[in-house]
Design brief:
343 residues, alpha+beta, Uridine Diphospho-n-acetylenolpyruvylglucosamine Reductase, domain 3, Uridine Diphospho-n-acetylenolpyruvylglucosamine Reductase, domain 1, 3 domains
Length: 343
């Protein structure tokens, strides 16, 4: 089986070996044995935030399919211990249905629970770092099981210690703390507008989930076999965080937000202003193109290659750099492929 069949981008060569792990202990032991043998290993979750190279993957791909949710409910809060292989959006739906608030704005995000802390997944004013108490990990350098609390995860915008030290640790379970509340505060402008309330106003978790799913679907960001624009890895580029000085040189019409390390600019705005429009492609018959619904996504059609995706991403990155001297960084993990970088 080609990895193209296991990823939402739909590109990638075949691995030498593919194994699916359904139990946490099985996953841990397989990784330990492969690491001890110094074999090349790729841990694959839902395949929604990864771009695989066209060449065969020389090694073993372990597909995570572990399951299990433990629930401890109190009067005002609930604590969930969730296996890494649980589908993320199914977990969000479970929580919303039960009136547990804190991740409803993260509805519709594809992938598995174990991947969310790596990217510090966030959307519409919420991030996993806001509700994550701890994660259980396999330290692949020692073979030991360790627990990282929230602070030890060293969360940043779309990043964590797990992303900054790739392949060092394997997340096998996550502890998430949510509120038991019929109302949640909406802090994201587009979401508030859709709900017809002011920023800082309240809505039910059910209302927020429904609105987020509609907003994401309109951008092709909800997986749908009938929507060709959902055949992607989500947002291909991260919103860049720049200094106040650099931000002051960008037109005021560019959306911007305060960030711990400076100012976060809208990558989508930069891309459009650099001349890349919805549906843009390098040639008329190219099988990789910009989404017709959202300029942050690169989508593929049947038969597309990773090389076509990377060439398009390179061109977008170069256009933005040429106009604004800002380098957009890819959000998905690139395996057996890489961007050339602006020149």
């Amino acid at each position: 089986m080609r990895l193209a069949d296991l990823t939402t981008m739909g590109v990638g060569g075949a691995p030498d070996v593919l194994r699916t792990c359904f139990a946490t202990n099985e996953l841990i032991e397989r990784v330990r044995k492969l690491d001890d043998a110094r074999e090349n290993v790729l841990i694959l979750g839902g395949g929604s935030n990864i771009v695989m190279g066209d060449e065969p993957f020389r090694g073993t791909v372990l597909q995570v399919a572990t399951r299990g949710i433990e629930i401890e409910a109190g009067e005002r809060a609930v604590r969930l211990t969730v296996a890494a292989g649980e589908p993320w959006d199914a977990l969000v739906e479970l929580c919303v249905v039960n009136g547990w608030s804190g991740i409803e704005a993260l509805s519709g995000i594809p992938g598995l629970v174990g991947a969310t802390p790596i990217q510090n997944v966030g959307a519409y004013g919420q991030e996993i770092s806001q509700v994550l108490e701890s994660v259980r990990v396999l330290d692949r350098s020692t073979g030991s099981i360790e627990v990282f609390d929230n602070a030890e995860c060293m969360f940043e915008y779309r990043s964590s210690i797990f992303k900054r030290e790739p392949n060092r640790r394997l997340i096998v379970a996550a502890d998430i703390a949510l509120r038991i509340d019929s109302q949640c505060v909406v802090r994201y402008a587009d979401l508030a507008t859709y709900l017809g309330i002011e920023v800082g106003g309240s809505a039910t978790p059910v209302e927020v989930r429904s609105a987020v799913l509609a907003l994401r679907a309109a951008k092709g960001m909800v997986l749908d076999i009938h929507d060709e624009d959902s055949r992607s890895a989500g947002s291909f580029f991260m919103n860049p965080i720049v200094s106040e000085e650099i931000a002051s040189g960008i037109p005021a019409t560019c959306p911007r937000y305060p960030a711990a390390a400076g100012v976060k600019l809208s990558a989508a705005w930069l891309i459009v202003e650099a001349g890349v429009t919805k549906g843009w492609r390098l040639t008329e018959d190219a099988r990789a193109r910009v989404s017709k619904k959202h300029t942050l996504a690169i989508v593929t059609t049947s038969g597309a290659t990773t090389a076509e995706v990377i060439e398009l991403a390179d061109r977008i990155q170069q256009r933005v750099f040429t106009k604004y001297a800002i380098t957009l960084e890819p959000e998905p993990t690139l395996v057996n492929c890489a961007l050339a970088g602006p020149s």
